[in-house]
Amino acid sequence: MDMDIFHRKVEKGVSLVDFSALWCAPCKAQKPIIDGLIKKFKGNTSIIEMDIDKNRELAEKYMIQSIPTLILFKNGREIKRFVGIQTEATLSNSLNQAIESLDDISCEH
After folding, report:
1. Cβ neighbours of residue 93 under 8 Å, at least 6 residues apart?
2. Active-site residue flag, 27
3. Which of 12, 37, 52, 104 is the most exposed place for a label (fewest CB within 10 A)?
4. Any residues with CB less than 8 A from the CB of 6 and at least 6 apart, and which?
5. Are residues 81 and 66 in contact, defined by beta-carbon separation less than 8 angstroms?
6. What residues correspond to the site Deprotonates C-terminal active site Cys (predicted)?
7. Between β-strands 69-74 and 14-20, what pairing exists: parallel, antiparallel or unpaired?
């Protein structure tokens, strides 16, 4: 994915980026959870699966040292980072908190 396209995808709202690789066993274990989150949060957030082998520049920019690494963005800024396999509950809670904080900000205007 081109760097400009990536930044457009994460610049507004809440986004979760899953940095992983096809050959990574823990990433394969995480995949069903990510797929479930994509369905659960459809329309509320952007969930992007990022293959580090095809997107080395982005992996380097975000200093991905091990995979899976998931980065939660709010309005283009990294707000949370998860390294290793995460539960659905952990990721859902973090996504919900980020979405709620967006709603709080928009209500103030």
Report:
1. none
2. yes
3. 104
4. 48, 50, 55, 58
5. no
6. 18
7. antiparallel
Number of domains the chain is built from: 1
Instruction: Out of 27, 33, 59, 98, pick the active-site residue.
Output: 27
Instruction: Answer yes or no: is 75 within a domain.
Output: yes
The one catalytic residue among 24, 48, 52, 59:
24
Residue 107 is among the residues annotated as catalytic for this protein? no
In a domain, 27, yes or no: yes
Closest-CA residue to 81 (of 93, 94, 92): 94
Cα separation of 97 and 100, whole Å?
5
Segments forming the whole domain that contains residue 31: 8-108
pTM as predicted: 0.89
